[in-house]
Amino acid sequence: MDMDLKDLMELVQTTARGVGAEISSPWFYLQFGLILVATGIAYAAEAAVRNRVDMTSLAMGWPLPLRHFVRVMVSSASAAVFTLVVIISRIVMYHATWPSRSYLLMVAAKLGLAWLAIRLLTSVLRNEFIVKLVSITAWFVAALSILGQLDATVELLDSYAIVLGGLRLTPLLVLKAGALLIIALWFTNVASNFAESKINSASDLTPSIQVLLVKIIRIGLLAVAIVIALGTVGIDLSALAVFSGAVGVGIGIGLQKIVANFISGIILLADKSVKPGDLVTIGDNTGRISAMKTRYISVAAGDGREFLVPNEDLVTQKVVNWTYTDKNTLVKITFGTNYDADPKLVCKLAIDTAAAHPRAQKAKPPNCILTEFAEAGMKFSLTLWLADPDGMDNVRSDVMLALWDAFKREGIRVPYPVREIRVRGGALPVETTVEVPN
């Protein structure tokens, strides 16, 4: 520990002496001036290229993925131009004079490379945590390279290892695999989004087939990305076979519901029992399916609420699909009248009222039948067909309000219940019958 501390103090002192000598040299100010010039050229070039590319892309009508790629490149133009100018300046000074007189340019070049890497990656990544992780890693690597400790750090990370079967697992291997996996997953996301846009634009595919194809492509690309990332860093996948038993137990116990929902989602997409856009009733909730995910479906209700229903529930429970084979929907309205009304006139008024509604189908005219002679009056059932199930409650309310107005015009009254009340007590028993007038 004493030797390590002594070496560290010597490194700090040597670095301080080198920095002091560098600052006192006129070559330092020349390099500093070149760095300022490179900065000005970089930002001027980015502004010019950004305006030019934007106008060109709009004029030529480039597709969206290509425009996005070009904008990513343009957003990194300042870092690229700065790094290029600094590297060229450093090469010229390195060969024209002593190598030590271009040290500041070497530092600026390494920082420029880190800046360029950060700009490229952060312009395509959307996860804030990954963006911060990439930025910190890039600056840390640049700092180690400037201090000349990058190779030593790499050797240190590779010196600690855990042997699992035929796999030698080191911190360096984990970092490499993580970095490659992030890059591979980004390319996977871009490719799957592009495939999804093409599949969704195919009018000859049903919504269920579109969602199923997108899920298969995403899963396949994800598996390929993981295999490529692990294989690139030298991890033999057969060496991981020792974990297969533990993973199987974990899936069977801890991930049982997740796997069940995933398989249920595939079943729903394959048998086409529900699809995006269907109007469904699940339990007491009715709404239209807005999205089908790997674990759940999203059902948007008419009041703005959105229910997230696990896929397994749709396979194991009763689901009413209002638009499974036919979107035509039958609306049923029950009502009653007193016995003074003519039942034939009541049915005619009800049919005419329902037929007058703008959403009532002409090909399937409304129908009204007398269903019961009840204690308080006659009961009727009115049915009408709609082209789709949207807004059934609103249609039912409109027809009932119009029917009320029609009854008022014809003097037809809705029955009131008849109640018989008997009061017993006191010296004289009293029996009273109260009939509410019709």
TrEMBL record:
Q: Which GO terms describe its cellular component?
A: plasma membrane
Q: What organism is listed for this UniProt entry?
A: Bradyrhizobium sp. LLZ17
Which Gene3D superfamilies does the protein's record reference?
A: 1.10.287.1260, 2.30.30.60, 3.30.70.100
Q: Where in the cell is it found?
A: Cell membrane
Tell whether Chaperone is among the UniProt keywords. no
One annotated GO molecular function is: mechanosensitive monoatomic ion channel activity
UniProt-listed InterPro entries: LSM_dom_sf, MS_channel_1st, MS_channel_C, MscS-like_channel, MscS_beta-dom_sf, MscS_channel_2nd, MscS_channel_C_sf, MscS_channel_TM-2
Can you tell me where the transmembrane regions are?
27-49, 69-91, 103-122, 129-150, 170-191, 212-235, 241-269
UniProt KW keywords: Cell membrane, Membrane, Transmembrane, Transmembrane helix
Record domain Mechanosensitive ion channel MscS C-terminal: where: 331-413
Per the record, a Pfam family?
MS_channel_1st
Topology class, membrane: Multi-pass membrane protein
The Mechanosensitive ion channel MscS domain covers 258-323
Question: What's this protein's name?
Answer: Mechanosensitive ion channel family protein
Q: Where is the Mechanosensitive ion channel transmembrane helices 2/3 domain?
A: 215-256
Q: Which domain of life is it from?
A: Bacteria
Family membership: Belongs to the MscS (TC 1.A.23) family.
Q: Does the keyword Transmembrane apply?
A: yes
